[in-house]
Amino acid sequence: MSTLDEIAKLSGFSKATVSRVLNHSPHVSPETREKILAIMEETDYVPNRNAISLSKGQTQQIGMITMDLSELILRFMNGFVEISGRYGFQTIIYTTGGDKQKELQAFEDLKRKRVDALLILTSVNDTNVISSYCKYGSIVSWQRMDHPEIPSVAMNQYDGYALALEHLIERGYTRIANAFGRPSSINTRSRRLAYEQLMAKYSLPVNEKWYYSSIYSIRDGEQVVKSLMERTDRPDAILCSNDLVAAGVLSEARRQRLDVPRDLAIVGFDNSELSRTLGITTVRNPISGQAENAFLLLAPSLLGRNMELQPLSFSLVKRETT
Amino acid sequence: MSTLDEIAKLSGFSKATVSRVLNHSPHVSPETREKILAIMEETDYVPNRNAISLSKGQTQQIGMITMDLSELILRFMNGFVEISGRYGFQTIIYTTGGDKQKELQAFEDLKRKRVDALLILTSVNDTNVISSYCKYGSIVSWQRMDHPEIPSVAMNQYDGYALALEHLIERGYTRIANAFGRPSSINTRSRRLAYEQLMAKYSLPVNEKWYYSSIYSIRDGEQVVKSLMERTDRPDAILCSNDLVAAGVLSEARRQRLDVPRDLAIVGFDNSELSRTLGITTVRNPISGQAENAFLLLAPSLLGRNMELQPLSFSLVKRETT
DNA sequence: GCTTGACATGTAACGCGTTCCAAGGTTTAG
DNA sequence: CTAAACCTTGGAACGCGTTACATGTCAAGC
Questions:
Q1: Does B4-47 carry CATH code 3.30.70.20?
Q2: Whole-number distance in Å between B238 CA and D15 C1'
Q3: Averaged pLDDT of chain A
Q4: Residues of the signal sequence (chains A, B) (predicted)?
Q5: Fewer CB within 10 Å, N- or C-terminus of chain B?
Q6: Mutate: best of B2, B22, B50, B82, partner A, most A CBs <10 A
Q7: Which of A22, A90, A102, A104 to mutate to test the interface with B (most CBs of B within 10 A)?
Q8: How confident is the model at residue A218 (pLDDT cuts 50, 70, 90)?
């Protein structure tokens, strides 16, 4: 392994000049540059990343924190890895499994300068704890954090939900049920708001019994249909908070010999792979756009320049369940 | 940001002693240790990761190389991240998108000591090119590499395929078709071997027309069924090289009003999330076990000690398609 | 011809731990 | 009581680039 010092000695120039060549400094004469590059080539030299990181105080690495790796998370990561790669940043994954201590590791790594910045996908630690690390580097989050120093790229769900609703209403569905996720979450609140406002706008019935909460998984979706079947005032459509739930609803509906979408229309959320496989109408969530914005939010601290966020919007992907 | 040097000055001890405390060296008196630890606490000191990496020549980071992030890859990564984390190693992702140059980046990073070792999940570069980097650090691969210095944790598909076949035969299916992947791959060869040997063993017909090749996706699976329907000598079961294909086969079979599994039994491979969702019988591929083994193979170079690989085996997950 | 400035290059300190070797002090065995 | 053995601690070099500041050179400007 040759070092910069060796290159300097072999070429007869100083370390500074060699370093200038490496960093494409304009203050090197073309001949010198040539000579040094030739020697680097010969000796198969590459600069040691750790030495650079140490002296620059930057690692060009960004940490991504997540509890686990779901398809959605993956799409986000993919988008984020993509754009940060374009700017020369590597990404490193911290899967916490929901363990606070393990998650803290990632923040400690920001402090010890293993990473220059952090992206939170899902986190379990207290916002106050997390924000105390802001002084060591930029932190952005996908999930909303409610802290001025930790911006989030989460989108307001109102528009997406409204889009799905308008579509259902347009198709003639009027008795629309909701499978919400975490009851207290901001997402659920804005979805619910969208629902209530739209139903009012079209003078359609709002039935408290058509609200399901804490519905997350395929299994939960199946449960919803089962409980639906015991009703007399059955809804004719159901809006799900994610595609997993929609998949569960769909498979159980079929098992119950419901004709989808005639007896029951189903709309999912996120436009995941699963929804495509199963032909579920869903709301396209521009996840990689959000991922890009996440990086752009880090740009000031990472690249020293502000970058404009791109505007994002939901769109409807019509398939066979509506 | 306090540094080790400051801690040394504040405590009145030398840097060496402070470093010993950090590294849990036994050659420090308890009182000294206490004092130094107290000062570290006070000044909110954490050692700089880059300085450690530079002087130790090790970063405690392992790179994972993949073209993209599919569910299977993810499961492997998850397992790998898990076990390497247990031994204090961070993992960093290199998604190459199938770009040779981008992939080479990862290998260069091994050379520049950004990572201590590399895990190849999928790679597009020539084995000779890759193996030239072995001198800079250990490399293991999931996919078979056919090079003595790059061990692989891929499993021989023979057993898994045989398992599925035995199951089908036991259930009374005799006309069994195959949806293979890449025709020339080792996996396909061993699967085919398993098929031919087992069919011979049970004196069952082997029909060349029941071999499909280059079948990878849901869409491909659907195509297979369509082409099957045009046949008079239709098979009564089909063994798919992965669950995606099986899902395609299943959905098209249903569309064609075939009764699964009576008219057509379907077996997938990998036991992916999708197979569970759709109730497809499949072969459980112990992916996280392979991931662990991948790490264990790196252990000698990373931890300086040999670790025994765990034996792995396929198993059958019986569901509703057989 | 002399000053000014642009440009090429060098010097040396710095970033921050780790580790080999040596030294001073103390305990233990003989 | 002394020599060997051990423990605790320090000194200083090392790992490898980066960078602020200094120096030397040559050409343009007056």
A1: no
A2: 60
A3: 93
A4: none
A5: N
A6: B50
A7: A90
A8: confident
